[in-house]
Automatic annotation (TrEMBL):
Residues forming coiled coils: none
Keyword flag Cell membrane: no
Keyword Transferase included in the entry's annotation: no
Positions with biased composition (Basic and acidic residues): 31-47, 54-109
Residue ranges with Low complexity bias: 17-26
Disordered: annotated segments: 1-116
Compartments (UniProt record): Membrane
Name of the protein: DDRGK domain-containing protein 1
Pfam hit, one: DDRGK
Bilayer topology term: Single-pass membrane protein
Principal subcellular localisation of the protein: membrane
Family annotation (InterPro entries): DDRGK_dom-contain, DDRGK_domain-containing, WH-like_DNA-bd_sf, WH_DNA-bd_sf
Entry keywords, A to Z: Membrane, Transmembrane, Transmembrane helix
Length: 168
């Protein structure tokens, strides 16, 4: 048994030697493969670095773009505030100027009559309507300086008088 064990021990040592020799042989026979692997690894590493640089550039561009957008928005808001202030200032100045002008004017009479017409004016009123045949009530009232309501009443009165006169 000792001999078998010794042989097994010798074979074990020989197996390790064979494995080492196999590895050395693999190293000797694969330098081209190993060089290709190294080349592929280097190429892959370069592609990854290039991709990383692209991502970093894109990220930088996005950051710059968002900063420009914020600056533009801030500028727009600033301009809007300035415009609003200018508009308010202009309104304030216009109001002050209007108040100054109001003080210089005084209203003594309004532009409307009380609705009563003199005898000669009644004839003019009737002639105005007859001449034009179709009359805008606001224009009629403005022509004779009366309210539209009063002009309508005058027309109704004239119409009833005319109707009654024809019935006689």
């Amino acid at each position: 048994m000792q001999r078998g064990a010794a042989r097994a021990g010798d074979e074990g040592e020989g197996g390790a030697e064979e494995a080492a020799q196999g590895a050395q042989a693999a190293k000797r026979t694969n330098p081209a493969k190993e060089a290709k692997k190294q080349e592929k690894r280097a190429q892959k590493q370069a592609e990854q670095e290039a991709q990383q640089q692209k991502l970093e550039k894109a990220s930088e561009k996005a950051v710059k773009y968002s900063e420009r957008q914020r600056e533009r928005e801030a500028e727009r808001l600033r301009r809007e505030e300035e415009d609003e202030k200018a508009r308010e200032e202009k309104q304030k100045q216009e109001k002050e100027e209007m108040d100054k002008w109001k003080e210089t004017f005084s209203v003594e009479k309004e532009g409307e009559d009380d609705g009563t017409l003199g005898e000669g004016v009644v004839e003019q009123f009737v002639d105005y309507v007859k001449l034009r045949k179709v009359v805008n009530l606001e224009d009629l009232a403005a022509e004779f300086r009366m309210r539209t309501v009063h002009a309508i009443k005058r027309l109704e009165e004239w119409q009833t008088r005319t109707f009654e006169w024809h019935l006689r």
